[in-house]
Structure formats: C-alpha cells, structure tokens
Amino acid sequence: MNPEDLQLLVTREMPYGKYKGRRIADLPGNYLNWFAREGFPKGELGRLLALMHEIDHNGLSELLAPLRGEGR
Domain limits of the chain? Predict the structure, then answer.
C-alpha cells in the first residue's frame, strides 16, 4: 500500500455507476462487497476500491477521519 492512496480515498470520486460522484471513502460496504465478489476494475480505481474494501471490511474506516479533517 502506498500512503498517498489513503489520501486518494478521501478525495477521489467514483467516476461511474450508482454512486457516481461520491468519494471512494464514502461508498457503502455492500457496494464494495459487490466489487469484491464480481471483480475490481483494472488500474488505480480498482486498487483504491480494493483498499477501501479491506479498510471497511476490517472496521478501520475511522482511520481516515484525520485525512478528512475530522476530529480537530
């Protein structure tokens, strides 16, 4: 994992689909689970979705709070 990927999770938006325009870090777990079952897209988007799936699946979403500017 690249540390910059964590920042991308809270800034990069989903480019298509039901959640187009929503930040990757804000995608619901069931949507991330669907990608995990069906296959992540290739390239950077797929890498970020897979990372967010791991974070969400392991209950670590709160680790992104400082990158969002929360809790200050």
Answer: 3-67
